Amino acid sequence: MNIEEIREYCISKKATTEEFPFDETTLVFKVMGKMFACIDINNPEWLDLKCDPEYALELRERYMGIEGAFHFNKKYWNQVATEGDVPDHLIRQLIDHSYDEVVKKFTRKMKEELEIHPQDERRTGEGLKDRQTTF
Fold first, then answer.
1. 129, 132, 131: which is closest to 7 by C-alpha?
2. What fold, for 3-108?
3. What is the pTM of this model?
4. Tens-digit pLDDT profile for the chain (135 aa)?
5. 111 and 103 in contact (C-beta within 8 Å)?
6. Measuring CA to CA, which residue among 53, 48, 51 is closest to residue 65?
7. Edge-to-edge strands of the sheet including 34-40?
8. End-to-end alpha-carbon separation of the chain, Å?
């Protein structure tokens, strides 16, 4: 799965924004301000995703292309190889899982706001569109 496909899939999720809060190359996807995925646009070989701790361990045992995320709490974050033994359909499922893991920690008020958020409204912070980056 390439970075453009990952980006399109992530920003298609309800109430998702994209921005560069850490540096000029780390693209972060957030749902209502909470990070659920990030990828380095200069080295898009790895996608960092939040994950249930038990499921994270199962995935790491099964796939060579899934390991604890380098800069994050490895208990809750995996880095997933975008090319290799992790199939594209599983990468999409893991993006969904990461999004859901973040949403399930929302307060009741945030969940209500998400529920009424328009599905087709895409917002960008300092995202790729703003930078006119090409790959």
1. 129
2. Aspartate Aminotransferase, domain 1 (3.90.1150)
3. 0.87
4. 999 999 999 999 999 999 999 999 999 999 999 999 999 999 999 999 999 999 999 999 999 999 999 889 899 999 999 999 999 999 999 999 999 999 999 999 999 999 998 865 555 554 454 544 444
5. yes
6. 48
7. 16-19, 26-31, 34-40, 46-50, 77-81, 66-68
8. 14
